[in-house]
Design a protein that fits this description.
Pfam family, one: Aminotran_1_2
Number of helices: 14
Keywords: Ligase, Pyridoxal phosphate, Transferase
Strand content: 15-25%
Order of helices and strands: HEEHHEHEHEHEHEHEEHHHHEHEEEH
Number of strands: 13
Bound molecules: 4'-deoxy-4'-aminopyridoxal-5'-phosphate
Family: Belongs to the class-II pyridoxal-phosphate-dependent aminotransferase family.
Mean pLDDT: 96
Cofactor: pyridoxal 5'-phosphate
Strand order of the largest sheet: 3-9-8-7-6-4-5
Structural class: alpha/beta
Radius of gyration: 22 Å
Protein name: 2-amino-3-ketobutyrate CoA ligase
Length: 396
């Protein structure tokens, strides 16, 4: 017999979420997550994936994955520190260090568990972490896990960060203080003010931690936000994911050799969770080789992003202040945002509604993620559907 307490809890809370338009429905894809997708037999223009460069469906990555599976099998068989480290795991880490212009790198099974493992390996209850209020959920959870004092600063507000850093330092309460930020904020597409953050970090002796999940492959000729600002030797932790621009799955930290050596002996997901499967590792190596050799895909991504932004703006949509190809269309009210996304879907565009708690209440948006793989025809079709639905719902 199942627990009545649990049953009542779930019923009450699920109904509450559904009533407020905050319940996310999951639509399984019947196709690859490319520029066009198929859901329930319907072909849609896909503006919701993080497959920024189209590499998830690139034949070179697929071939590399198949070859690695034939050689090493479907799974890696153990955690990294027992005997789940294949030679290709080591090769991937070397490639990542080259890609990020650092001494070394460590690979995790996802960006999420990278943040869970990396922060808590270095910070503890005697420390403090200054964290941007809009940082990703995995950073928030990683900070909590560390038991350090979490001090949130206003989003990209450098005066607030400086004041809080000064106060924390002068209190004498903390052994170590870290400042932690997303490189690119995925809900608005804005870029962290890294030069100012580094200046503040130098003044107050802060450890610097940048999660560049959305900047890698996109900014800095592909190398990311830190490289974009020329700060590769000034950031202690460069975090990335292998699931977005790289097109596969996994996460990593790039940094000084000593830091990476420490993470390899103290980071719990590295020590206690089975390593990435061979297919994923080989495909990631292929993707990074592609990025190291050409900026063609980034150029196409930016071209498409700018094209979509110009089009939506010309139609009268509020596209916020994005500095990257991420293009939010801010609707505001949660129910209306869900309705907008639903109507886009019916007309042939898949652009997911993002509402509270992922973004603050009242700032619901349909978020568009153009990729290098979209054609101008797809984007034109998406824009004409946006125009139709925008007029119908009184958004423009
Ligand atoms: N950090 C940030 C900033 C992210 O946006 C995401 C993905 N949503 C992650 C970490 C987690 O990455 P992954 O999907 O590889 O677990």
């Amino acid at each position: 017999m199942s627990s009545k307490v649990l049953e009542n809890f779930l019923k009450e809370h699920l109904e509450d979420l559904k009533g407020k338009g905050l319940y996310n429905v999951i639509d399984p894809l019947e196709s690859a997550n490319g520029p066009m997708i198929k859901i329930a037999g319907k072909e849609l223009i896909n503006l919701s994936s993080n497959n920024y460069l189209g590499l998830a469906t690139d034949q070179r990555l697929i071939d590399a994955a198949i070859e690695a599976t034939k050689k090493y099998g479907a799974g890696s068989g153990a955690v990294r520190t027992i005997n789940g480290t294949l030679d290709i795991h080591v090769k991937l880490e070397e490639k990542l260090a080259e890609f990020k212009h650092t001494e070394a790198a460590i690979v995790y099974q996802s960006g999420f568990n990278c943040n869970m493992g990396a922060i808590s390996a270095v910070m503890d209850k005697d420390d403090a972490i200054l964290s941007d209020e809009l940082n990703h959920a995995s950073i928030i959870d990683g900070c909590r896990l560390s038991k350090a004092k979490i001090i949130r600063y206003k989003h990209s507000d450098m005066e607030d960060l400086r004041n809080k850093a000064k106060e924390a330092k002068e209190s004498g309460l903390y052994k170590k203080i870290m400042v932690i930020t997303d490189g690119v904020f995925s809900m608005d597409g804005d870029i962290a003010k890294l030069p100012e953050i580094v200046e503040i970090a130098e003044e107050f002796d802060l450890i610097t931690y940048v999660d560049d999940a959305h900047g890698s492959g996109v900014l800095g000729n592909g190398a990311g936000t830190v490289k974009h600002f020329g700060l590769s030797d000034k950031i202690d932790f460069q975090i990335g994911t292998l699931s977005k621009a790289i097109g596969v799955v996994g996460g990593y930290v790039a940094g000084k050799k000593d830091l990476i050596d420490w993470l390899k002996v103290r980071s719990r997901p590295f020590l206690f969770s089975t390593s990435l499967p061979p297919a994923a590792v080989a495909a990631c190596i292929e993707a990074i080789d592609i990025l190291l050799n050409s900026t063609e895909l980034q150029d196409r991504l930016w071209d498409n992003g700018n094209y979509l932004k110009r089009g939506l703006k010309a139609l009268g949509f509020d596209i916020g202040e994005s500095q990257t190809p991420i293009t939010p269309c801010i609707i505001g009210d949660e129910i209306k945002t869900q309705e907008f996304s639903k109507r886009l879907y019916e007309e042939g565009v898949y652009a997911k509604a993002i509402v509270f708690p992922t973004v603050p209440r009242g700032t619901g948006r349909v978020r568009n993620m153009p990729t290098a793989a979209h054609t101008k025809e797809m984007l034109d079709r998406a824009l004409s559907i946006y125009e139709k639905v925008g007029k119908e719902l009184g958004v423009i």
